[in-house]
Amino acid sequence: MKDKSPEFYFTKEEMVKDLLAITPIKPEDVVLDAGSGNLVWFKNLPCLPENRRECEIERGCDFYEWKEEVDWVVGNPPFRDKNGKNQIPSWIEKASTIARKGFAFLINHKVFNCLTPRRLEKLKERGFYLQHIRIVSDKRWFGRYYYLIWGKENKNFVSWELKSY
């Protein structure tokens, strides 16, 4: 299989800014960009610079080994590991163990099959509820993508974005 160029996977900065703008991160919050890749999420985190954290396996920091609690975990996680296994359920699981306030990930439609009642109940037991879904598209990617925001308030709703990035 031919390798794709790095920009194929990275989120455009305009989309990152729009998604972070709807995430209820406060300037004093400590925020982890869990798969920082090209640092576009990290550079645009709406918190104080000293409260930004980043984790990127290519730079020696494995998200699954992250120990520090943070207020928020955000980003566009890799959908598959090197063996082709879907990583999103594991990312949601890990984020729910280290986030104090919430986590938000940009994912594809396949994640909805991972949101089983059992997994949702486990998240509820940890105090996390799906609070917002923003539907977006990018001309470079196939289909729609979903930015899911999980937080501590028990409320659910969906929003969408008409423009294409």
Structure characterization notes:
With about 160 residues, this protein is α/β, with parallel strands linked by helices. It has four helices and seven strands, in the order H-E-H-E-E-H-E-H-E-E-E. The chain has helices at about 15-20, 40-45, 90-100, 115-125, and strands spanning about 30-35, 50-55, 70-75, 100-110, 130-135, 145-150, 160. The chain has a seven-stranded mixed beta sheet with strand order 2-1-3-4-6-5-7. The chain is globular and about 35 Å long.
Structural class: alpha/beta
List the helices and strands in order: HEHEEHEHEEE
Uncertain residue segments: 1-7
The coarse overall form would be: globular
Largest sheet: 7 strands, mixed
Summary keywords:
165 residues, alpha/beta, Rossmann fold, seven-stranded mixed β-sheet, 20% helix, disordered N terminus
Topology (elements, then pairings):
Elements (H helix, E strand, L loop, with lengths): L12 H9 L9 E3 L6 H4 L8 E3 L15 E6 L12 H11 E10 L8 H9 L3 E8 L8 E7 L6 E3 L5
Parallel strand pairs: 1-2, 1-3, 3-4, 5-7
Antiparallel strand pairs: 4-6, 5-6
Quick structural overview:
This protein has four helices and seven strands; from the N terminus they run αβαββαβαβββ.
